[in-house]
Design a protein that fits this description.
mainly alpha, 2 strands
DNA sequence: CGATTGACTGACC
DNA sequence: AGGTCAGCCAATC
């Protein structure tokens, strides 16, 4: 059933793809769903390699502060903020997302 | 195979 | 309140 050939990265990608539009998730959140909360670093690394940016909305993944990492720059710095706004996500600051309202509450988990 | 890195988090000062 | 240190895990060189 589960393919052992899949790495943690693939699991993380799968979780990121599951993030509903209009919501954001934290690295620790994604890591927790992927398998272990301690994979927060791995999640960051996984998105860093980001083999499929078109299918992996990495811009919906933010750090625990609700802010997008500077290293994102996978499309142009603050560009991710614009994408999140387009999804209906509100910002408390130019770089901080309103986690209280838009953080993924994963209803099926 | 061993050492280093990394888009994080939490705790401590 | 804000900055710094250490810990965690997997992938890469």
């Amino acid at each position: 059933m589960e393919k052992d050939n899949e790495t943690v990265f693939d699991k993380i990608y799968n979780v990121v793809k599951k993030i509903p539009k209009g919501y954001v998730a934290t690295y620790g959140q994604v890591a927790s769903i992927a398998g272990n909360k301690r994979w927060a670093r791995v999640v960051g690394y996984a998105l860093h390699v980001n083999p499929d940016p078109e299918h992996i909305p990495c811009y919906r993944v933010v750090n625990r502060e609700g802010r997008i990492s500077e290293a994102f720059a996978f499309g142009g710095g603050n560009r991710q903020v614009e994408l999140l706004k387009a999804d209906g996500v509100e910002f408390v600051d130019d770089e901080h997302v309103d986690m209280e309202k838009y953080q993924w509450d994963m209803p099926w988990y």
